[in-house]
Amino acid sequence: MKRLTVALSLLVVTLLLAGSFAAAQAPRKGGSLVVALGADPEHLNPALTTSYPVGAVGASVYSGLIWLDEKGRPQPELAESWDISADGRTYTFHLRRDARWHDGRPVTSADVKYTMENVLGPYHGRFRNAFALLEGIDTPDDYTVVLRLREPYAPLMSLLTVFDAPILPKHIYEGSNPLDHPANYKPVGSGPFVFREWVRGDRIVLERNPDYFDEPAYIDRLIYRIIPEELSRSVALEIGDVDLVWGLYLPASELPRMMQNPELEVWQGVRIPSLYFVFVNTREGALANPKVRQALMHAIDREQIVEQAFMGLGNVNVGPFGGGFFWAYDESTDYSKLYPYDPAKARQLLAEAGVRNLTLRFVYDSARGPFRTAGEIIRDNLRQVGINLQLVPLERSVMVEQVYTRGAFDLSIQSFTSSGDPILGYHRIYLTAAPGTPFVNATGYSNPEVDGLLREAAGVFDFERRAELYRRASQILARDLPVLVLFDEVATEVANKRLRGLREALDVRDRLERVWWAE
């Protein structure tokens, strides 16, 4: 009996402790979350751009029709349900009736139609390809939206998140130029946080939206600290001035030390395949010759870049569409095999092209330290084959203007997310594009056959059929090399160890309203 009493006592204590632990781990409201950015965003309207910092802030202010969970599955946001026709050409979305803009007006189907037709279609680098297939947008009532496509578009549902299709308030933007509207800097959204202030060069402050249509955020405030110097971001994280830094803004060389810090949690993995590459301005001069571009690929030591600039967080066994999607990867066009590091071969190709004493400008975002290190490695690589590389660090908004609007560069290192499907994230690297739209093809390269193959692939749901189209496109792109693909990214982020609820969505910038502080 005594043994039984002791056992029961231990069971009760265990249950009490388990209950206390569970209670302690239940989400708690209150406090602020401070996230580091490397530079001021160009603006705060994610319907105009795929810019990383714009999307980072905009994702908490605006809403999409859906959001993608950690496995990439669509979940309801502004749309509470949807229907897709058997032929894949008609999508009907049923909107929530309790969603409101931060000024109190209701979110309706008119907002969705206006945003897609007047902002996303003309200006968003990823949405524009889907918009080209839209036959029409119907709004039979205030809470129903019907998208009619001329032909199926395989990744449409994945495109309808806050990053690629944020819905804007029609009553604020209608009748104006969305590119320079004041609301781009003082946004009025429908998301979980309300914009409060933007002190350029210092901070952007958002506050919990108490009237959010879903469960309100746990934290009171979401603060984005602007910290241009990469080492300062690391220090801010370690002393507690910053709570979260995404890999885009982390100096890779600091990761080993951060892993030893008991107050920090370091996460590494692949949620969404992302590609690091160098745009080549193919419009004129020596770089218009594919043989010169092939020489550059042989001259650049991509493994050295991954190891020294990105601390091994990358995979160089990639083709034109990376290697993150196994069905889109073709070993016959793997650049590590087609263009291994070979300075002698690079010199041979340059001689065959009649090129000597070449000087090139390498433009990059100055806030991203690994880009500087990569540029230094590429400069040393190219010096061995007789090419002088001038490094041109620019503040992000200036870089965007120089590369995507003016075309004032020779080489420019960039990174694009796939957004979960190469149709969404990688087609824009190669499809013909006029200057002026950020984060699309900036090389001047235009190949009607490639355009046709990629557009055909966009309507194919079967991965085997799509793989064949990618194989044919890759053979052309591997020969023409308008883009020097460097590696696939292994993502990382570092956060205060007491934070809970991170990474609930496919994109780590999303769903920050679910983040809370443990005791």
Characterize the structure shown.
- The chain contains 18 helices and 21 strands.
- It has helices at about 1-25, 50-60, 110-125, 125-130, 155-160, 170-175, 230-240, 255-260, 290-300, 300-310, 335-340, 345-350, 370-385, 395-405, 420-425, 425-430, 450-460, 465-480; strands spanning about 30-35, 65-70, 75, 80-85, 90-95, 135-140, 145-150, 195-200, 205-210, 220-225, 245, 265-270, 275-280, 315, 360-365, 385-395, 410-415, 485-490, 490-495, 500, 515.
- α10 (about 300-310) runs antiparallel to α13 (about 370-385) and α17 (about 450-460) packs antiparallel against α18.
- The longest helix is centred in the first third of the chain and has 24 residues, at about 1-25.
- Residues about 1-25 have low confidence and may be disordered.
